[in-house]
Amino acid sequence: MPSLFAGHSSASALARMRRTTVQAAVLSALAATPVWAQSTVPASTAQAGAATRGYDIAAGALGAALSHFAGQSGITLSADPALTEGRQTPGLHGRYGLLDGFAQLLQGSGLAVTQVGEQAFVLRRSARAQSADASAAALAEVQVTAQAERSAVSEGTGSYAAAGPSATATRLNMTLKETPQTVSVMTRQRMDDQKLDTVAAVLEQTPGLSVQNVGSSRFSIYSRGYTIDNYQLDGIVTAIDFVSQNIPQSEADMAIYDRVEVLRGAAGLLVGAGDPSGTINLVRKKPTRNFQGHASAGVGSWDRRRIELDVSTPLNQSGSLRGRLVGAHESGGTHVDFSRVNKSVLYGVLEADLGPETTLTLGLDTQRNAPRGGTGSGLPLFYSNGEQTDFAASANAGARWNTNRITATNTFAALEHRLPNDWMLKLSGNHMRGHRKSSSADASWGFPDKAVGDVQLYGGMAKAQQKQTGFDVHAQGPWTLWGRQHEAVVGFNWSQFENLHQALNTEDEIEGRTINLYRWNNWTERPVADGTKFMDYNGWQKQYGAYGALRLKPRDDLAVILGARLSHYAYRLTSLYPDIPNLNKVTSRNESSVLTPYAGIVYDLNDAHAVYASYTSIFKPQSMRDRTGDVLDPREGQNYEIGLKSSLLGGRVQTAVALYEIRQNNLAEIDAGHTVPNTRNEPAYRAVDGAKTRGLDVEINGELSQHWQLGASYNYSTTHDADGTRINTVFPRQMARVWSSYRLSGAWSGLTVGGGLNWQSRTYFSATPWQLGKTVTAQQKSYVVAHLMARYDFSKQWSATLHLNNVFNKKYLQGFDQTFYTGYYASTRNAMLNLKYQF
């Protein structure tokens, strides 16, 4: 009977897996296919076969070796166990492509493999091998008979380089070298090596991004000087509501994600409205065709504890139904006094082959965050005399009983159908529900006297509900014109966002209480809701649009990408104060038939290097108001970019260099010293025309040599208004990041060591708070932070990893809140020890 090699610990157990009579007949027919009928290998298959990874499989029984090889490669191998019985293999050590790896393992066996589906192979007798020593013939018989799509899944590759194509820029599946924009991919291996368990931690290590923490669970993401105001979940756009602090995406635990793709620059073709900063695509893990999984447990500084379980398995004998379940829980303290985290995540996904051409994916993830004692608004940045404050990094502006519970649930589905002529139709959707409930008192309202330390509290009780729904349908594939093959994609996406935020009246108001920042010991009486509302803050947003892109290939070494989007956008924000009706306001914007063009050109200098140029645009309606109370006009931006991308060492190393310029009109900038009329001192903004951002991005990721992984980047960016004055100064002018890991060899082959540095230049901002009556400046000088890692593999199943973060205990402000004039200090030195079992 056929067996299935898919990474199980026992080849004999795998041999017992049964196949149906029809499957056995199909496999037998394929095995009997003459070599001359299999002589053509499609280009995409050849590329997949050429992709290499490191293997360390000992010489010995062929069946066991093939089982390990299939598991490490993420493919399914079917075979009659009699074929491998009694046969030996020389093993596999070093870097190999899939086909070369099979050839080495099967050397001298008289056996060969035939591909029967995406990542599915069957073992058979070689038609040309007449004896066990027919090594050369066995090598020649490693043939592929079906086209396999290039996979972008990073899990299991062991690499910091992107594993395959990305559709984040245009929806066309193009490699990073083929994409005429800057795209960075944080792979599963990189996240594991650095123990990046949160979205914020991942983005802090991503090239070109600045994460500005303004509270224990609030942060803004800056790219090229502007905020990124959306996340994508498997390509479905979701909005961010920063004002109500109900941001479920920002709380996501990385246990459920395979990789994070970050596009820097304008992303209007797929995203619609937004800043020319970029977009963040969180790509979930999917079920695998072979059984695999891991369990881990860790302990660390501040009594931090984390457990994690991840299991993926076929759910029927044929593997046409597959499932995956992931769960994680983390609790403990933080570097901030009296602050504790408590979060749980559960993720389940099913994948079913409805037929040979159709795949359905259904899934759900839910996460519960229940932190305690944190601060939502950071520490005051200025004393009453205008001097910048300097607190201990562990100082906490929040009361010990502060809570900010957020529960988020995503349900999602995707249907992929392979059409004739290599076209693909995909429908996908995501529905998110988020609930937030908070009770807080933060010592952050006003400017404390430096000697005395008195300051007013800000906070109270609030709750919020959020609902987001997104949908995308697109078709893509090749087409022929003038004797050459080109590619096209056409699609439509739609999204709607609703958020209801209620601030509650309490029997004893928090706001206005005066405490002594030096002696309050993070304690004040808790508020008690009296059953009435102080304010309703209701946000609603809907946008939809049709998009299309062409990838024209006038020559083998030249690609021209042209695209456009036609968008419709509606936005409404309602603020209602039952007790203060003169503060009520409704802000709405509607934009129809907004055309967003896209253009790019990529020229291959040779197989390794390509130069490119691109033009992308974006627009963003604004809710900010000026000193007269009028809403600012929509912001419009264009991104011009040129660069060089390279794929080196057989694709194991990827590099990119980019020069860009962003031009913006109607850019909102705080109008220092002015507030919006009839508001509670809401800061006024003014529109700036002629703003320009110019910058440089340099990046390298991948395996420089056997067992040596490197991820490094340098970014320069500066923004000036039409008068040449630098603006957006909270975004660092320069950033450099490097992380590297190396697995030792010989007697120490079980040990992997790693380390990295993060450096950025000075950041600052100036303001004229009405309370101080003068201009003040807050700054964070340039700094560098070091991190270390060591992992020891006791066996193929067991490993232990130690992480040491902020090795030299550097103290620095991680962000500025320019509305409340507060700041938040980054984590001090901390360590985490993790024990992992893989099965």
Task: Provide a descriptive summary of the structure in words.
- By secondary structure, the protein is mostly beta strands.
- Helices cover 9% and strands 54% of the residues.
- The protein contains 10 helices and 47 strands.
- The strands form 9 sheets. It has a 22-stranded antiparallel beta barrel. A 5-stranded mixed β-sheet has the order 9-15-16-13-14. A 4-stranded mixed β-sheet has the order 1-4-8-7.
- Strand 25 and strand 26 form a beta hairpin.
- The radius of gyration is 28 Å and the shape is globular.
- The two termini are 25 Å apart.
Low-pLDDT segments, ≥5 res:
1-50, 127-149
Largest sheet: 22 strands, antiparallel, barrel
Please state the average pLDDT score.
86
Computed Rg? 28 Å
β-strand amount:
over 45%
The CATH homologous superfamily of the largest domain is termed: TonB-dependent receptor, beta-barrel domain
Total strands:
47
According to CATH, the fold-level topology of the largest domain is Maltoporin, Chain A
Number of helices: 10
Give the end-to-end Cα distance, rounded to a whole number of Å: 25 Å
The CATH architecture classification of the largest domain is Beta Barrel
Q: Share of helix among residues?
A: under 10%
In brief:
The protein is mainly β and 839 residues long. The two termini are 25 Å apart.
Set down the secondary structure blueprint.
Elements: E1 3-5, H1 11-15, H2 21-31, H3 43-50, E2 52-57, E3 60-61, H4 62-73, E4 76-79, H5 81-84, E5 88-89, E6 92-97, H6 98-105, E7 111-117, E8 120-125, H7 135-140, E9 182-186, H8 188-194, H9 199-205, E10 209-215, E11 218-223, E12 226-227, E13 230-233, E14 236-239, E15 257-264, H10 268-271, E16 278-284, E17 292-300, E18 304-314, E19 321-333, E20 340-355, E21 358-369, E22 379-380, E23 403-419, E24 423-445, E25 454-481, E26 484-506, E27 514-516, E28 529-555, E29 558-576, E30 585-604, E31 609-620, E32 635-648, E33 653-665, E34 667-675, E35 683-688, E36 691-705, E37 708-720, E38 726-727, E39 734-743, E40 751-760, E41 763-767, E42 776-780, E43 783-793, E44 798-805, E45 813-817, E46 822-825, E47 830-838
Parallel strand pairs: 4-8, 13-16
Antiparallel strand pairs: 1-4, 2-6, 3-5, 7-8, 9-15, 10-11, 11-12, 13-14, 15-16, 17-18, 17-47, 18-19, 19-20, 20-21, 21-23, 22-46, 23-24, 24-25, 25-26, 25-27, 26-28, 28-29, 29-30, 30-31, 31-32, 32-33, 33-36, 34-35, 36-37, 37-38, 37-39, 39-40, 40-43, 41-42, 43-44, 44-47, 45-46
